[in-house]
Design a protein that fits this description.
Layout lengths: L3 H14 L9 H8 L3 H7 L3 H13 L10 H15 L1 H8 L4 H25 L7 H24 L7 H11 L2 H21 L18
Helix pairs in contact: 1-2, 1-4, 1-6, 5-6, 5-7, 5-8, 7-8
Length: 213
């Protein structure tokens, strides 16, 4: 549970970001806006991006904590709606020197959401597939997730994410289980081929491309 002081600092930074680029904001500005001393600020945060990241986590991760079986879909929705709800703040970070740091941070969050979602789906079923294919599926979802997000940010977040989410929803809703079933079937077929000496996944160099670490 976050302290009242942390919440005040978070809200202060997000308020300032509505008007200024992250490049222009200083610790002094945040302290004045939140009414705390520099020492109190540094008791909670060492740098400004950490405040933004906390705001992001609070809205995105907290809302998905009880929906592990569908974290991929719900998490994606929450990320896009966070960007839309805080359009100016997000763009003021994205267009600053912290833009790449923002994308790296969101990608880490996305990996967590995707991994928990897929692992939860596997645990709730009797599916047994290789770690290679689990990593491939995670990589596949991450590409969709980050590719869509980058396009949305580059567009200037001009429209509601409804169109993106509705189309992604049609293609991805409940698709994790179906994909796992199909991958399991494919592995069984490949195993049969391998026993005949016709195919060996272990010799395929491309499987290492999808390492999610």
């Amino acid at each position: 549970m976050r302290s009242a002081t942390k919440r005040i600092i978070m809200h202060s930074l997000m308020s300032i970001l509505e008007r200024k680029s992250m490049d222009e904001i200083t610790v002094r500005m945040v302290c004045e806006k939140s009414g705390v001393s520099r020492q109190t600020f540094y008791n909670h945060y060492y740098f400004l991006m950490a405040i933004f990241e906390d705001s992001f986590r609070e809205e995105v991760l907290q809302s998905t904590s009880e929906n592990s079986a569908h974290k991929c879909e719900i998490g994606f929705e929450k990320v896009l709606y966070f960007c839309y709800a805080h359009k100016k703040s997000v763009l003021h970070v994205y267009s600053s020197r912290f833009g790449n740091e923002l994308l790296v941070f969101i990608e880490k969050v996305a990996k967590t959401l995707i991994e928990n979602g897929i692992n939860g789906c596997i645990s709730a079923s009797d599916i047994q597939i290789s770690d290679w294919d689990v990593d491939f599926l995670k990589f596949f979802y991450l590409c969709i997730f980050m590719g869509t997000l980058r396009t949305y940010l580059k567009s200037g977040i001009k429209e509601s994410p409804y169109f993106l989410l509705s189309r992604n929803g049609v293609m991805l809703e409940n698709n994790t289980r179906k994909s796992l079933d199909k991958l399991q079937k494919l592995e069984n077929e490949e195993s049969a081929e391998d026993q005949k000496g016709k195919h060996s996944l272990q010799s395929d160099p491309f499987v290492k491309l999808f390492d999610m670490e």
